[in-house]
Every structure is written in C-alpha cells, then in structure tokens.
Write a structure and sequence with these properties.
2 domains, eight-stranded antiparallel β-barrel, 5 helices, 291 residues, elongated, alpha+beta, Porin
Length: 291
C-alpha cells in the first residue's frame, strides 16, 4: 500500500488502465482458445454394442455377426476421440507465433526532478535523450489481440550538470527490461491501422560516471568508470501506435511496419538512496516490423 500512496494520480491511472488492458486481453485470449465443442455421444455406441450380441444363423451368440458390430462401435468411439484431439490441435495451431524487431529513441519527460540536491544545489532532470532496441515474441490469439514478451535495451545520457557536480567527465544510464505487452489492434481488417499497447514487468537500471583516460590502440581516449550503481525494480508503460500491412494480394499479409510511442514509468530508488536518482520517466519512440 505504501507503493500506491507514493505514486502520483497520473501514475495510478496509468497502472489501473494497464491492468484493465491486460485483463481484457487475457479474457479475450481465453475465450478464443476455448471454443464450444459438442461432447461425443455415447448412446449410439451403447446401442451399437447391445445390437452386437445377436444370434447368428446357427443360433450361436457372439458369432461372426457380433464382431463387425463391435468393430464398428469401437471405430466410432476412436473416430470421436481422434476428432476431439484434432479439433484441439487445430485450435492451438490457429494461435500463430508473433515476432517483432524495433529500434528508436527515448525522450525525457523531465518529471524526474527533485528538491533534494547533491552539493547543496537542487536540479533536475537526471536523465536525457537516448536510444532503444527491442525484440519480442509471443502469440497472435486473434487478428485483434496479440500478446508479446519483450526484451528492451535503452542507453541514455546523463545531464551535464549532474556529471559536473559528481566530478566526472561523461555519464550514461543503461536500462534492461523484460515485460509482457498486450497489443490490441483497433482496425484489424485495414491495411493502415491503430493499436493500443502497454504492459509491465522487470527493469534493471545502471548509472555510470566516467572519466576519459589515454589511450586505446588507436590513440583515442577511453571512458573509465569512477562511480556506478544499479537497481532492480518494476515498471510499466502505456501507449499507442500505427501499423502498415505489407504483402498479400488483398492487403492481408502477415508482415506489418509499426511506429509507436509509450509513456514509461520505472519506480527507481529516490535521490536520497545510494543507488538511485529518483523515479525514471521516459517516452520511448520505436520503429520496427512485426510478423
């Protein structure tokens, strides 16, 4: 509960909306993965079995007349079982695999400021522009709903004021994340569409302060770390994107180009902690392709 109290109203709304998206997505996926199927009828098999115990022409019970009937009943039961298994496999196969590759840039929001200070001077923000790389995989549960597991790497620079105050020459922040991201296509039958996405999961953030020392094999100065710290925490994102479908005679190809922007919130440790510079808020913009 202390975690919720520490969040702003906007962050609480983001969290609740993200949970709602996940709930709707999972409910849709479950309903799609459990279609109604009629249960096999055993009455016909029982009737066939009872009719099998008839007397043959010589008056002997269980003769040659019984064998074909019993075999037919057995074949019907096996056919019903095979049909049920085939239906389940067909339903599973309908959930085709999804894959995405993307890259882009991260824009700072500036909300990661603080009245606290280092060296007696309050300042912020504590993170600036950077780039990102994303790879993901999952399942297409329908043309409208896809669930992805995403790995993302972000590389952002630190503000000059913060670097100078610490006494270093350069600085950067690396963010690695593993998240679940539902994608809801609003117009799945159109070549150009809009989708809503979001999700959350695990985030690892490392902050590094460096000085330049001489030299590498080419005579260039190289950064050497003089201070660094890291943290592990939860985070979440919410955003929307545009897609353009490629291929297909009627625009029904499986490959899509996408461009999206999300609001990302990471509950990193505060400035007063030894391993944090306050909560992290960014706008990752990603361009890529989905299959």
């Amino acid at each position: 509960m202390s975690f919720l109290r520490s969040m702003s109203l906007m962050q609480r709304v983001l969290l609740l909306f993200g949970v709602a998206i996940l709930a709707v997505g999972f409910a849709s996926a479950q309903s799609l993965s459990n279609p109604n199927s009629s249960a096999p009828s055993f009455s016909a098999a029982n009737e066939s079995s009872s009719s099998a115990f008839e007397f043959d022409a010589d008056g002997d019970p269980g003769g040659s007349a019984a064998s074909p009937s019993a075999s037919a009943a057995s074949g019907e039961g096996a056919g019903a079982g095979a049909g049920s298994i085939g239906h389940s496999l067909k339903s599973l196969a309908s959930h085709s695999f999804a894959l995405e590759l993307g890259a882009g840039f991260n824009g700072p929001i500036g909300n990661d400021t603080s009245t606290s200070s280092i060296g007696g001077v309050p300042y912020g923000p504590f993170i600036t522009w950077g780039g990102n790389f994303t790879i993901g995989g999952g399942l297409h549960f329908s043309k409208r709903f896809t669930l992805l597991g995403e790995f993302q790497f972000m590389d952002n620079k630190l503000p000059g004021a913060l670097i100078n105050d610490v006494g270093s020459q350069t600085g950067d922040t690396h963010i690695i994340s593993l998240t679940a991201a539902p994608v809801i296509d609003l117009f799945p039958k159109r070549i150009n569409s809009i989708y809503v996405t979001g999700g959350g999961g695990y985030y690892h953030k490392s902050t590094n302060f460096n000085v330049l020392e001489c030299c590498d094999l080419y005579g260039e100065e190289v950064p050497v770390s003089v201070d660094s710290f890291s943290s592990n925490q939860v985070g979440g994102s919410l955003g929307f994107g545009l897609t353009h479908r490629l291929g297909g005679v009627y625009g029904d190809g499986k490959t899509k180009l996408f461009a999206e922007a999300r609001y990302l919130y990471i509950h990193t440790p505060p400035l007063t902690a030894t391993n944090g510079l306050g909560t992290t808020e960014l706008i990752p913009v990603t361009l890529g392709v989905r299959f």
